[in-house]
Amino acid sequence: MADVRVSNHPLIQHKLTLLRDKRTEPKKFRELIREIAILLAYEATQDLATTPTTVETPMGVAKGYRLQENIGLVPILRAGLGMVEGIWEMMPSAEVWHIGLYRDERTLRPVEYYNKLPVAPTVQVCLILDPMLATGGSASATVDILKRWGAQRIKFVGIIAAPEGIATLSGRHPDVPIHVAAVDERLNEIGYIVPGLGDAGDRQFGTG
Ligand code: PRP
Ligand code: URA
Questions:
Q1: In the chain, % of residues over pLDDT 90
Q2: Beta carbons within 8 Å of 173's beta carbon, 6+ residues apart
Q3: Catalytic residue list
Q4: Which one of 17, 79, 187, 190 is separated from 123 by 20 to 30 angstroms, measured CA to CA?
Q5: Which domains are present in the chain?
Q6: What atom of ligand 1 comes closest to residue 102's alpha carbon?
């Protein structure tokens, strides 16, 4: 069964509504992508392992916890880029590994054009970042890449998913939880999510 976590947090839902609005300009759109990404990553990282420790305060010694695992943020270019900075501020020791994929407009199949992963994995947990899970081809291909690399735990953090994308990603990779702010109705005939928000890359970067 698909492991899909849709956040009903009021802050996320409020910001998502502004993000979808066709009148939202690129500057505001980028701010919203950044803010929603932070909130979704907060929810997606609730099960990170910690090591107990102690810390000296000015008043004494307190119990504390340190993150145990190395985290990799894996934005899918281009649209995933906007989700990186805010999350990175929350976890500054994370590594960022970019994966370049674009969808062939005719076949809707992902085409890989950038991948600089080193030979051996350097992180224990990977958060794939991409606002849109449409056919699921790009996300599934990215999980394929990360699994070949040797990544042990992978999560997908997106903003809007189509049912078709969830079926594909969870069918090919049932071990990868899918964290999103919304699951929309369907894909249209050219592979866009309806009602969605349009083209997430173009709306962030002011192109198209
Ligand atoms: C968009 C989006 C995802 C992909 C989702 O990227 O950011 O990466 O489409 O579609 P899928 O689930 O059907 O694979 P796009 O290929 O438009 O590239 P861009 O981010 O460079 O604009
Ligand atoms: N990519 C987007 O940017 N938007 C969609 O609706 C589908 C794929």
A1: 98
A2: 140, 143, 147, 154
A3: 103, 107, 199, 202
A4: 79
A5: 4-205 (3.40.50.2020)
A6: 16
Q: Residue 114's CB: how many other CB atoms inside 10 A?
A: 11
pLDDT at position 1 is 77
* 129-147 pLDDT, tens digit each: 999 999 999 999 999 999 9
Spatial CA neighbour of 125 closest among 63, 60, 175: 175
Q: Hunting for tokens 């962030």 — which residue is that?
A: 204
Looking at residue 2, its pLDDT comes to 85
Measure the CA–CA gap between 61 and 64, rounded to whole angstroms.
9
Ligand 2 pocket member 137 (CB < 6 A) = no
Residue keyed to tokens 């999350």: 87
- CB-ligand 2 contact for 136 (6 Å cutoff): no
Q: Which residues contact ligand 1 via a Cβ below 6 A?
A: 76-79, 102-103, 108, 110, 130, 132-139, 165, 191, 200-201
Spatial contact of 198 and 208, defined as CB atoms under 8 Å apart: no
Q: Which of 130, 197, 203 best tests ligand 2's pocket when mutated (most atoms within 8 Å of CB)?
A: 197
* For residue 174, cis peptide bond before it (omega within 30 degrees of 0): no
Q: What is the mean pLDDT of residues 74-99?
A: 98
Centroid of ligand 1 to alpha carbon of 159 (angstroms): 12
Query: Ligand 1 centroid vs 102 CA: distance in angstroms?
Result: 6
